[in-house]
Amino acid sequence: MAPGFMARRRPAVGDVFTKLTVIALPVSGTQILSRDRWTCRCSCTDDQRVEVLGSRLIYGSTRSCGCLNKERRGAHVARLRERHSTRVSWRALLRRSDVNIDPTWQAAFDIFFADLGLRPTGHVLSRKDLEGPYNAANCFWEPRRTQVERVRVRRWATPNAGGWEKGPTKRCSKCNEEKSIKSFYCNNASKTKLHSSCKRCCEEKRRLYYRKNVPKLILANAKTRALEKRLEFDLTIEDLEPLPTHCPVFGMELTYGGKNGRHRQDSSFSIDRKDNAKGYVRGNVAVISWLANRFKSDAEAWQLERVAAWMRGKDFVPAAAS
Questions:
Q1: Statement to judge: residues 35 and 87 lie in one domain
Q2: Which of 59, 93, 149, 291 is the most exposed place for a label (fewest CB within 10 A)?
C-alpha cells in the first residue's frame, strides 16, 4: 500500500469526478477506499447509477459508467471510416509504376491526406496536367463523370480547316491504338467508365466467341423457347453435333447472327421441330436456316404445297388434307 493512501481525502456526497457525481456513501462506516464502493450518478443520464471503488474515483481510473469509452471508440471508428475511401485511392496510386509520384506521398498516408483532404463521394483522384506528376500542386479530387469527359487530350487524325482537331482520346488495350473516346463503349454498370478495348476490338471478340460456342448458344436459345412455351426438352450438345455447314433446305451457308452475332439473319442457325406437336426432344429436331424455319413455321406439308401452287398461279380444287 502506497504511503499516505489511507490519509487521502474520502469522496463526499456531491463531489464530481469527470462524468460521475457521488450521491451516496458506502454502507459501512469505515469508508476504506480500496474496499468500499461509493454510489455515483453518470452525467449521460439521470437514471444511470454505478457503484465505484473509492480508490478508482480518487485516482481517476473510473470516470464514467462506460459511455466515455463508447464515445471515444465511436469517434475513432468514424475517423477511420471517413478516411477509408481516401486511403483506397492512395493505395491504388502507389500500385502504379508508370507515373511520377511525390516521394512524400509514397512515404506516408498522413501527408497525402493533409495535402488533398477527405475524398468526396463520387470523386476520384485526378491531375490538372495529365502529363505531370502526382503531387499536391497538380492533383485534386474530381467528379468521376467529369474526369471521363476530360480524358487525356491529344492530337488525333481528324483533319479540319485549321489543320488537326484536338479531342479526348484513349488507348485501346487490345490493338494499342490511340482513338477517340467515341470509339469506346461505356460499361453497363457504371455508365461512366469506358471499356479498356475499343468498339472494333469488342465486336471482334464477340464474333470469335459466337463462332467458338455456336452449338452451346443454339442449345441455350432452344431451351429458353421450350421454357416459354412449356415444351418438353431433353437435348444436349452431342445431339446437335456435328452442325451442318449449309442449310439442308435452301443450300445457303449457315452463320450465327448478323455482323456482330447478336441479330438473326436469313442464314442464321436455327433449330426446327419436325413435329410441332412435340417438344425439343431427340429425333424431332433439325438444324436449318432461319429463313427455312420462318417459312415453315407451324404449317404442314400439304399446306405449304397449296401455298406454292397459289404463288405459281395454278388453278386447283381445294382438297382436304390427307
A1: no
A2: 149
How does DSSP assign 101-118, residue by residue? B-HHHHH-HHHHHHHH-S
Query: Exposed, middle or buried, 319 (CB in 10 Å: 0-12/13-18/19+)?
Result: exposed
Asked if residue 295 belongs to a domain, the reply is yes
Residues 180 and 226 in one domain: no
Q: How far apart are CA 64 and CA 12, in angstroms?
A: 17
pLDDT digits (tens, 9 = 90+) for 79-91: 666 678 888 889 8
The C-alpha atoms of residue 144 and residue 137 are separated, in whole angstroms, by: 20
Q: Indicate whether 222 belongs to any domain.
A: yes
Phi first, then psi, for residue 55 (nearest 5°) are -65, -35
Per-residue pLDDT reduced to its tens digit, 176-217: 888 887 788 876 655 556 778 888 888 888 888 877 788 888
CB 24 within 8 A of CB 38: yes
Residues 198 and 240 in one domain: no
Low-confidence ranges of the chain (pLDDT < 50): 1-7, 153-166, 259-261, 320-322
Q: 192 and 221 in one domain?
A: no
Q: Please report whether residue 25 resides in a domain.
A: yes
Judgement on whether residues 56 and 109 belong to the same structural domain of the protein: no
| Residue-wise pLDDT tens digits, 59-77 | 888 888 888 888 888 777 7
In whole angstroms, give the CA distance from residue 138 to residue 157.
Answer: 29
All three cell numbers of 229: 412455351
Please tell me whether residues 198 and 218 are part of one structural domain: no
Assess if residue 309 is contained within a domain.
Answer: no
E strand or H helix at 84, and its extent? helix 67-94
How far is Cα 57 from Cα 12, in angstroms, rounded to an integer? 11
280 and 235 Cβ atoms separated by less than 8 Å: yes
pTM of the model: 0.38
